[in-house]
Amino acid sequence: MRKYRLMAPGPTPVPEKVLLRMADTLIHHRTPQFQAVLKDVNKKLKKVFKTENPVFIFASSGTGAMETSVINLLSKGDTALVISGGKFGERFGEICEAYGVRTVNYDVVWGEAASADVVRDLLKKNPEIKAVFGTLCETSTGVVNDIEKIAKVVAETPAVFVVDAISGLLADELKTDVWGVDVAIGGSQKGFMLPPGLSFLTLSAKARKLIESSDLPKYYFDLKAALKSHAKDDTPWTPAVSLIMGLDTILDMILEKGLDNALSYHARLAAATRAGVENMGLELFAKAPSNAVTAVKVPEGIDGAAFVKKMRDEQKITVAGGQAELKGKIFRLAHLGYTDEFDTISALSAASIVLKQLGCDVEFGKGAAKAEEMFM
Ligand SMILES: *Cc1c(COP(=O)(O)O)cnc(C)c1O
Fold this sequence. Notes:
The chain has 2 domains: 5-10 and 258-375, Aspartate Aminotransferase, domain 1, CATH 3.90.1150.10; 16-256, 3-Layer(aba) Sandwich (Aspartate Aminotransferase, domain 2), CATH 3.40.640. 44% of the residues lie in helices and 15% in strands. The protein has helices at 16-22, 32-49, 62-73, 87-98, 116-125, 147-155, 176-179, 205-213, 223-230, 241-257, 259-279, 304-313, 341-357, 366-375, and strands spanning 5-6, 55-58, 79-84, 102-107, 129-135, 137-138, 143-144, 160-164, 183-187, 199-202, 293-297, 317-318, 320-321, 330-334. The strands form 4 sheets. It has a 7-stranded mixed sheet, sandwiched between helices. The mean pLDDT is 98.
């Protein structure tokens, strides 16, 4: 029996202890037992997001929380600035469009990070902008954006700053309150090491004001209802009880080791992955690489889709290919969550085998050896 390795930038593997907790007897959510868990989870989530503000939990994938931010902060005819340098940044633009929000687009070259100076200029030229949407780790390109710098620029204006930190959180630094991020968004199936199905959203006092006047249609994702319930450590609708039980366990595991440890652990795996692929003679795609996922250029003449398929079907390692304009051109090797040094080394070894099978001139052992050296 081959061992299966999930090395995509979401979903990521789930620790056994968390799987066991989620398999426990299901309890009802309107009980003191569940409410005690939720109260504790709410407190622990604030620590992970580095915020004193409430963190809401939705029974949805990450996109649900992205949509929540748009429909609760804005109104018909409002203007938003969408910073996009990949698939996920574009998603904010698509959501705005779906609800009739006007957008000013800052299209960053894919593979590059957004510039705070450009954001400043766009905000000056378009003073009607009410919200700025950005991404911590743009998972489709493997780029990490300088959220701290951009937040400083947005904070000088009346606009609120919404950050999709779904893949970046716990791997790349995010200081929600200290940096002045108004809304930070997370998802369960990335650095949180849970199955897909939960999304998270923080809300600053500045963002809270916008909720009062927002007239876009909403019901399930209405933050007014969420706020009311959150104050009582409750939820307006039935929460995803089992996933929240798993969240309780994983938050304890993460906080026990500390958030700094989570960041340095991801940084270590990411650095070895980058050095490993470069030592194999491959090129990195991202100019500002994230510690959640490494995007690698598929060598000239090699079929990128075949690489991902052979990795998955023959080596039993799920890596991600390129999306949209990057289809077949890059592959993305994640080192996010419940993954370790030896997963990284295995993935580099498997990549050499598969690349060689596809006709690429790689020397065996180069990637793994470099990673071993760095880990030592
Ligand atoms: C995974 C991911 C999402 C959310 O996608 P869902 O499929 O809705 O969970 C959003 N943004 C980024 C940057 C992501 O990596």
